[in-house]
Design a protein that fits this description.
4 strands; two-stranded antiparallel ribbon
């Protein structure tokens, strides 16, 4: 049986994007939550909780973006011009956030300015990621594999909604991470924030989910046609179970359960997007097959990915294992 290389690569890139969202999402969420923790000591503890892993989390963004360019060049060349502005803002936000993360430790007097930079960079990066997602879901004007839309087509009420949803969702991940990794006042405040953000995140997921099927007939047919309607009937139930598990974990002081439940919300939302998109890589415009590079290139790159991805997974898992457990406020990692 012939190997369906384009579909395999679509799965690899989807996995890379999901890994980035669930891993870098919580450390972006730490920055988004900075205004709720105004004390220098609390912010030091928050940044120390992600110091050993935050750089490595962004590896998946590089792999996803680089893989898209190499494996689906037609999709990359069509989507990038449509999303130049949000992508550039996202990259600037990530750069500024990284600089602020390091520089806030180098000064006492000016640390509050770098703290503002860390918050702004984290929030901008999260918001523009949501904007880009919303723009992709609502559709990109493509003819002959070229973008033919305008500079501001990405900015719509729907994309703004998805941007806000990603910011709130990342903040939820950050709050659950702090609940998992810290003790004392920071943990108690993170726990309260997680309870409120859980409700807001579920409401935003519901709003986006109800809006999406009416954007494109492809989505409507996919979610309400057979057999995919069988899965769509269970999505609200599964999301409710994750939300309930998160709330129960917070109430019963199970520190890991809320974080895993928050990750479950993202995984379910991502799976829903995958069902809506497949077999398109750009909804309604480019399929996985039509956007793929030549088979020889896909096979060559797959050999590299077979070595690279397990290596990334191994060192990522090792880093999280080494720095497992609660963070000691007196020691830290930085």
């Amino acid at each position: 049986m012939p190997i369906d290389l384009p579909t395999i690569w679509a799965a690899i890139i989807a996995f890379s994007v999901l890994a980035y969202v669930v891993l870098d999402g919580f450390d972006l969420g730490i920055g988004i939550l900075f205004p709720f923790f105004p004390e220098r000591e609390s912010r030091d503890l928050m940044t120390n909780s992600i110091a050993p892993v935050w750089d490595g989390n962004e590896t998946w963004l590089v792999l996803g973006g680089g893989g898209l360019m190499a494996v689906f060049p037609a999709a990359y060349s069509a989507v990038l011009p449509a999303l130049y502005i949000p992508i550039i803002i996202m990259l600037l936000g990530l750069i500024f956030r990284g600089v602020a993360f390091e520089f806030r430790w180098r000064t006492r007097r000016g640390s509050r300015y770098w703290d503002h930079g860390f918050w702004i960079g984290s929030t901008l990066a999260a918001f523009t990621q949501g904007i880009a997602l919303g723009a992709l879901v609502q559709g990109i004007a493509i003819e002959n594999k070229e973008y033919v839309g305008g500079w501001w087509d990405w900015l719509t009420p729907f994309s703004v909604l998805t941007g806000v949803a990603v910011v709130v969702g990342y903040a939820l991940l950050g709050a659950c991470w702090l609940n998992l990794k810290t003790l004392g006042d920071v943990q108690h405040r993170a726990k309260r924030l997680a309870g409120a953000l859980n409700i807001i995140t579920l409401a935003l997921i519901a709003a986006v989910s109800l809006w999406t099927p009416f954007i494109n007939p492809i989505y409507f047919e996919r979610w309400f046609g057979w057999p995919t309607t069988f899965f769509s009937a269970f999505v609200p139930l599964l999301l409710s179970l994750c939300g309930g598990a998160l709330r129960y974990g917070l109430r019963t002081d199970r520190h890991l359960q809320p974080f895993l439940a928050a990750l479950g919300l993202f995984v379910l939302s991502f799976v829903g997007l995958g069902i809506s998109f497949f077999p398109y890589i750009v909804p309604g415009a480019l399929t996985i097959e039509s956007a793929a590079a030549p088979e020889s290139s896909l096979l060559f790159l797959l050999a590299g990915a077979a070595v690279l991805i397990p290596t990334i997974l191994a060192y990522t898992g090792y880093a999280y294992w080494v720095f497992r457990g609660k963070l000691d406020p007196e020691e830290g990692y930085h």
